[in-house]
Amino acid sequence: xxxxxxxxxxxxxxxxxxxxxxxxxxxxxxxxxxxxxxxxxxxxxxxxxxxxxxxxxxxxxxxxxxxxxxxxxxxxxxxxxxxxxxxxxxxxxxxxxxxxxxxxxxxxxxxxxxxxxxxxxxxxxxxxxxxxxxxxxxxxxxxxxxxxxxxxxxxxxxxxxxxxxxxxxxxxxx
Length: 174
Known about the structure:
- By secondary structure, the chain is α+β, with helices and mostly antiparallel strands.
- The chain has one domain (46-170).
- 34% of the residues lie in helices and 18% in strands.
- The chain contains five helices and seven strands.
- Strand 1 and strand 2 (9-11) form a beta hairpin.
- The N and C termini lie far apart (41 Å).
């Protein structure tokens, strides 16, 4: 494995899927395949990771979702951005820390809440009113945009999703 050094540390592993998101393999399959190519990843501890270590997951529909007894096709795609550095996991509020502690005990893992988001064809309010959802979306989208610019990283999916102008009448995130 070739290493490169910059102000954030040594780059050990990087992967970006650039095929159409409709043709991608499920995340668990992709992780297993990447693990076999880079087994040293399992030897890293969270404290070994740079504060700039992150991952993005593109979420896409896998079929029809029954809504109110009808079958409705969902065409919304979105990306969530997650830091995987323990530095950011420690800098959370008390309520989040309690939730993380409970999840660790119950499931034995560490939750990675998203710090950023981008969407394509986001629609239908689910949990929040439109104004609140739009504000949250704008904050999370701005965070993802700033993160990528700060790292000088071109993320294909982010570019595709944000190049399609969003209609505020259909931004109902939560």
